[in-house]
Amino acid sequence: MSRPVSLPRWADLALLPVINVLVAFFVAGLVVLAIGEHPLEATRILLTGALGHGEGIGFTLYYTTNFIFSGLAVAVAFHAGLFNIGGEGQAMLGGIGAGVAALALGSLPGIVALPIAVLSAALFGAAWAAVPGWLQARRGSHVVITTIMFNFIASALLVYLLVDVFRPPTSMEPSSRIFGPGGKLPFIHELIPGLPKTPLNLSFVLALLAAALVYILIYRSRLGYAIRTVGANPTAARYGGISPERITIIAMAISGALAGLMATNEILGVQHRLINDFTGGYGFVGIAVALMGRGHPVGIILSALLFGVLYQGGTELAFDKPKITRDMIVVIQGLVILFAGALEFMFKPALARLIGGRG
Question: Are 81 and 230 in contact (CB under 8 A)?
Answer without folding.
Answer: yes
